[in-house]
Please model this.
Amino acid sequence: MHVRELDAPEETADLLRTRAVVLLAQGAPEEAVAHFTRSGDLARTAGASDKVAGALRGLGDAARRGGDTARARVHYENALEACAATWFSVGETARILIGLGRTAAAEGNTESARDWLAQARAQALESSDRLLMADVADALAAVAPRPERTAELLGAAAGLRGAPLPGDPEVARTTEHTRACLSPEVYARAYERGRHLRSAAVSEQ
Model:
């Protein structure tokens, strides 16, 4: 690729990480891991600690989705440490916290998951990134105490994005489970309430 020919490690790291995210979403975890790993190596070469954190978060996401929560946690914790080295990483920090929350939830530690996600929500509320807030809403939905609240948060995420998130297996599982717990009318009512409230629904405790 042209950026490699120009000896641009930071730009190449960005492109590799973007490609890795696509590969992971397409169900090619091994290729995604290779791209995330190379992205992190190049980011270290460039001294771009926020991009190192992003690559490590990607490795955490891949490990978590593959069921290796112990490895995922190590990657997320290392990402959090790398992220602390830069002041402009609020969004990256929040997404790492989301990863830690989802990891705890996958291990059945709901209270720990809620603690991590509360921290992610606090970070997201400091930013104006609607997509970040939507990611927080989807993660919070998975550990909400009531199915009506889950539906509301799923609606809030869709409202913030402008549409439901397609192809995400974790969101799909949450949605399927919640629909099974509620009547169609109750689900639709709660979902629409969240879609209307958007960030306000996420900021509720």
Notes: Residues 1-6 have pLDDT under 50 and may be disordered. The radius of gyration is 17 Å. The longest helix spans residues 29-46. DSSP finds twelve helices and no strands in the chain.
